[in-house]
Amino acid sequence: MDAHTANTAQEATAKNARAGVEVRSAWSVPALAVAPMMEWTDRHCRYYLRLWSPTALLYTEMVVADAILHGDRDRLLGFHAAEQPLALQLGGSEPAALAAAARIGAEFGYSEINLNCGCPSDRVQRGTFGACLMREPARVAEAVAAMKAAVRVPVTVKCRIGVDDEVGDAFTGRFVAPLVAAGVDGLVVHARAAILKGLSPRENREVPPLDYGVVYRLKAAYPALPIVLNGGLKTVADVAATAGRVDGVMLGREAYHRPQVLAEIDLAQGRTIVAPTPEAVLAAFLPYVESELARGTRLHSITRHVLGHYAGRPGARAFRRTLSLASTRPEAGTGLLLAAERAARERPAA
Question: Is 119 a catalytic residue?
Answer without folding.
Answer: yes
